[in-house]
Amino acid sequence: MEPLLGVKVGCLFSLLVLTLVCGLFPICFKWFQTATGRHRRVLSLLSCTSAGIFLGVGFMHMTAEALEGIESEIQKLVIQVSSRVAELQGCEARMMNRTRESNEERGKIMKPRTQEEQQGR
Length: 121
Known about the structure:
Layout: H1 3-28, H2 30-33, H3 38-68, H4 70-106, H5 115-120
């Protein structure tokens, strides 16, 4: 057995024992069996803490697996975005050009006057 595998098995076993001890802890004390008022709040706080620990461990586990293949996905995204930027710029230039032409036709934009028009005024 490799040393790393032995450490993993040892941690797994110790985590199991610790979970069982902490889970059975309330059964051993009468204080927890007659929970009223303040005792109920303490039990609620302990329950919320354990739920938070379980959620945290679960998310950390999923995060580690998600980060394994994220580098290739980022590279794919960068290639897609860079090809789309050129298309977007082309569409934007065409739209601005059509807007300018449309406004010139309607007379909303004044065309620059020639020198003859300026002198005739």
